[in-house]
């Protein structure tokens, strides 16, 4: 966000644009990918869980409420 992007997520397009803005050099996204790999960086996917998530409540729900909600398949009488 410090570089006028809408989120903190760095994509290849954003890295490419940042390099071009900073150094005036334009690379393809493939080349940016190779440069980042050569620097020892790898793609990371942000975890999509709410900060407020209560893991114990989720586990309790999965063990108690979910089985009661799941539909059971009636035995076939053919």
Describe the structure.
This protein has 78 residues and is mainly α. The chain has a domain at 1-41. It is built from 3 helices and no strands. The protein has helices at 12-23, 29-38, 55-69. Helix 1 (12-23) crosses helix 2 (29-38). The longest helix is centred in the C-terminal third of the chain and has 15 residues, at 55-69. The chain is elongated, with a radius of gyration of 23 Å. The N and C termini lie far apart (62 Å).
Quick recap:
It contains three helices and no strands. The protein is mainly alpha-helical.
Could you name the ranges where pLDDT drops below 50 across 5 or more consecutive residues? none
Instruction: Please write the string of helix (H) and strand (E) elements.
Output: HHH
Number of helices: 3
Strand share of the residues?
A: under 5%
Radius of gyration: 23 Å
- The overall pLDDT, averaged over residues, is 84
- Our measurement of the CA-to-CA distance between the termini, rounded to an integer number of angstroms, reads 62 Å
Structural class: mainly alpha
Shape: elongated
- By DSSP, the count of extended strands is 0
Helix percent band: 40-55%
The main β sheet shows up as: none
Defining key terms:
78 residues, mainly alpha, single chain, 47% helix, elongated
Task: Map the helices and strands.
Blueprint: H1 12-23, H2 29-38, H3 55-69
């Amino acid at each position: 966000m410090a570089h006028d992007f809408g989120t903190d997520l760095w994509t290849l397009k954003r890295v490419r644009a940042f390099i071009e803005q900073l150094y005036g050099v334009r690379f393809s996204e493939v080349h940016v990918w190779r440069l980042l790999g050569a620097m020892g960086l790898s793609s990371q996917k942000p975890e999509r869980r709410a900060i407020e998530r209560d893991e114990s409540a989720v586990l309790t729900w999965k063990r108690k409420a979910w089985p009661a909600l799941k539909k059971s398949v009636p035995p076939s009488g053919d």
